[in-house]
Every structure is written in C-alpha cells, then in structure tokens.
Amino acid sequence: MAALLLLIIYIAFIGLGIPDSLFGAAWPAIYTEFGIPVSRGSLITMLISGGTIISSLLSAELIRRFGTGRITAFSTSLTAAALFGFSCSGNLLLLCLFAVPLGLGAGAIDTALNNYVALHYRASHMNFLHCFYGIGVSLSPLLMSLALSADSWRNGYRTVFWLQAGIAVLTILALPLWKRVSAVSGQEEEAAETVRFSRLLRDSRVRMACLVFIGSCGLEYSCGNWGSTFLVTSRGLEVDAGAGLITLYYVGIAAGRFLSGILSFRLGSRRLVLMGQAVVLAALLLLCLPGLALPGLGLFLVGLGNGPVFPNMLHLTPRIFGKRLSQSVMGVQMAASYVGILLAPALFGVIAQEIGAALFPGWLFLLYLLMMTGSFFTVLKRKEK
Predict the structure, then answer these.
(1) Rounded CA gap, 87 and 163, in Å?
(2) Is residue 293 pLDDT above 60, yes or no?
C-alpha cells in the first residue's frame, strides 16, 4: 500500500508542475487578444507566487488540522478550478482573480507532499518526486502549443483543466489509502508542532536554510529566464540558437535529479547537496570563459549541479530540525524558495536593462554565494548523511 500511495503522490506532483509553465506559453496569445501591455504578465505571476508564499506559511497549521491527504485533494481541486477559470477569463481582472487560488493551491500541495515524503520515504523517492514535477512542467507547454496551433489558448487551458481535474479526482478517491498505509505500517502521521513564523526566524538554522533555498531557486529561475538573453546579447548567438542552448539547461536539471535519485542509495542527501554545489561552481567558471561552446556546457552543468540541491535539502529537513518541527520549517523553506523565484529574476532584469546582460555570470555567482553561506551552517557542519 505504501508503494501505491507513493504513486499517487508522484501523480499529484505532475499536477503541481502542470500550471507552472502553462502561463508563460499562453501569455503571448493572451496579451495580444486582450490588447494589454506584455508587462502585465508580471502582475499575474506575482499574484501566483504571493498566494504560494501565503499557503506555504499556513501549511503546518492546515495539515495539523486536516491531514496531508485532505490538503492534497482539496488543493489539487482548487488548482483545477483556477485553471478552468483562466480558460473562461475575458479580461486581465479575471486572470488576476483566478491567479490567487492557483497560487494558494500550489503552495499547499508543494509543502504537504514534500514534508510527507521527507518523513516517510528515502532520499531517492524525493529526487524522483521532483522528476515527476518535471513531467508536469514539460507537458503543459506542449499541450498549449498544440491548442494554439489548432484553436486558441482557452482550449489549451481547458485541456489542462481536464487533466488536472482527473488528478484531483484520483487524490480524492485515494483519501482512505492514507489511513490504511498508516495502519499497516504502524506509522501515524507525525504530530507536527505548529510554530509561529516569527519564532522560527529567530532560529539561526532556519534563517541559514532559507538562504540555501533563496539562492538555489533564485539561481534556477534566473538561468531559465535570462540565460538565452545572455547568450544572444553577450555571446553573439542567434535567437534560435540561444533558445536551443537554454534547452540544455532544463535537460541538466532533469538529469541531475534523476542521477541524484539513483546515487542517493549510496551517497545520501548531504553528500549529494555538496557534490551538486561543487558542480555549480565549475559551471559558473565555464560561463565566465570566452567562446560560444562553453556557455552552453556551463548552463547544462548549472542545471545538473543545482537540480539535486532543492529535493535533497527538503529531505534533510526532518533530520536537521526534527520531525515535530519539520512541517513548520518546510513551510518557511517553501516560502523562501518562492521569494527567490519572485525576486531574483526580476532584480537581474533591472540590472540587464540598466547595465547589461553581460553581468549574468556575476549575478549567478552572487546567488551561489548566498546558497553556500546557508549551506555552511545547515549542511557542511553536519556529520551524518
């Protein structure tokens, strides 16, 4: 039964990834149809990220009251409803309205399932869990592309809604399975201690862990958003070639998490985090060197090294902070992740506009130093795996 529940969790994580890359694929068609500036898309993505941060911080109390299974089922249903709302929207105001439940649902799923897997499964399962997230992120732009070529972005959202609704129904039907797994394994869900956000931040270990997530996620999304621009404006590549090389970055992330899942049987989460960060340092040095081939290799290695950091840091959370505090700390860490996702690419956008995209490797190195500062106090000082 534990294996069946793990499969349900994997499928739910596909559902978590589905909305994340859908809006970016649809936005060129949306803002053209609505006749609004392209920059208005940032308003929607900020609302989604804001909702995710809020639900991440509230997740410990919600899961304590309702349990991981119910939160997963409700939140997946909430995101499905939001996707349907996007498909029916006729103006920017409605898109902003439905962006809020989309973010709230995503944050609750993310925090709840990451903590459950960290508590009850091996590090390999955490890494493979995030590979399934990658399936969702990769699937939705493909479906939107097919919809745009055949009809409209609304049908793309409607198609993804039906897929997400199917996953929501599956999570609802699986609700009895959570209790059965607990009964068979003899492991009830850990009685989580709900701790105030302000109290958690007084703990220096929590602050340092947040630095790891802000740095790692900020680096990840800065690469995804600005890597192609750097290659085109600073290294002289054609636009299509820049887009092609940035694909190597996403391949690197997927490969890094898959390899991490395999290697975790021998190395453990702590070593995988440190090894990944060493690969990122080598990659950043390659990005600084002249030549057209090295930046592409550098971006691939950034993804390869940084990809395992996020899932393995999550898996270490119960070991660093204890099982009773892990849910509260997990919520803070997920909120910190979305702070990095929200702010880092936007800040570099200002730098690129005012100074130039040539500072891209330097910006990534600053984020890397932020990540390593946090890692020194939360990972390097620990003796266990």
Answers:
(1) 14
(2) no
Q: pTM higher than 0.85 for the full model?
A: no
Neighbours of 173 (CB within 10 A): 11
Report the C-alpha gap between 270 and 52 in whole angstroms. Answer: 27
pLDDT tens figures, 369-380: 999 999 988 877
Q: Which of 192, 50, 194 is nearest to 118 (CA)?
A: 192
- Nearby residues of 132 by Cβ (< 8 Å), 6 or more positions away: 10, 11, 13, 14, 17
Range 161-167 contact pairs with CB under 8 angstroms and sequence separation of 24 or more: 161/80, 161/83, 161/84, 161/87, 163/15, 163/18, 164/15, 164/18, 164/19, 164/76, 164/79, 164/80, 164/83, 165/77, 165/80, 165/84, 167/11, 167/12, 167/14, 167/15, 167/76, 167/80
Half-sphere CA count of 77, side-chain side, radius 13 A: 11
